[in-house]
Amino acid sequence: MSDKPAAEPVNVRILDRDYTVGVLPDERESLQAAARLLDDRMRELRGGNRMAAFERIAVLAALNLAHELQLLRERNQARETRIQHALEGLEQRLNKLGLD
C-alpha cells in the first residue's frame, strides 16, 4: 500500500462545459483557480462571438497562457542569475576580508 494520497475527482466548468479531473487533495484549490483563469481567458477571447469554434478558443487561450508562463520563467531565470552574481560578489568581498 502506498503512502501517496490518492487523486480525487474535481468538477470544473470551462466555457460552459463540465470536466472531471483527478487531483491530489492539497492541489484542489490551485486546480480550481487554474480552471477559473482558463475560463476567464477563453470567455475573453470568445467575446460576443458565441459561434467561435471551441477548439480555436482553447488553443489561443493555451498559447496565451503558455507565452505568459515562458515570460515568467525567463524573468525568473534572469532574477536568479542576478542573485547568483550578487552572492558571488559578496563571497569574494568576504574572502578578501578573511571572513570566509
Description:
By secondary structure, the chain is of the alpha+beta class. The protein contains two helices and two strands. It is elongated. The N and C termini lie far apart (49 Å). The mean pLDDT is 94. InterPro entries: Cell_div_ZapA-like (IPR007838), Cell_div_ZapA-like_sf (IPR036192), Cell_div_ZapA_N (IPR042233).
Quick summary of this structure?
With 100 residues, the protein is an alpha+beta fold. Helices cover 63% and strands 14% of the residues.
Overall 3D geometry? elongated
- Number of beta strands: 2
Write down the domain tally. Answer: 1
Order of helices and strands: EEHH
Beta-strand residue percentage: 5-15%
Report helical residue fraction.
55-70%
Order the strands across the largest sheet as they lie in space: 1-2
Q: What structural class is derived from the secondary structure elements?
A: alpha+beta
Number of discrete helical segments: 2
Main traits of this protein?
alpha+beta; two-stranded antiparallel sheet
Secondary structure topology:
Blueprint: E1 8-14, E2 17-23, H1 28-46, H2 54-97
Antiparallel strand pairs: 1-2
Helix pairs in contact: 1-2
